Amino acid sequence: AQKVTQAQTEISVVEKEDVTLDCVYETRDTTYYLFWYKQPPSGELVFLIRRNSFDEQNEISGRYSWNFQKSTSSFNFTITASQVVDSAVYFCALSTQETSGSRLTFGEGTQLTVNP
Amino acid sequence: DAGITQSPRHKVTETGTPVTLRCHQTENHRYMYWYRQDPGHGLRLIHYSYGVKDTDKGEVSDGYSVSRSKTEDFLLTLESATSSQTSVYFCAIRPGGLTRSYEQYFGPGTRLTVT
Question: Which of B9, B104, B112 is the best substitution to test chain A (most A C-beta atoms within 10 A)?
Answer without folding.
Answer: B104
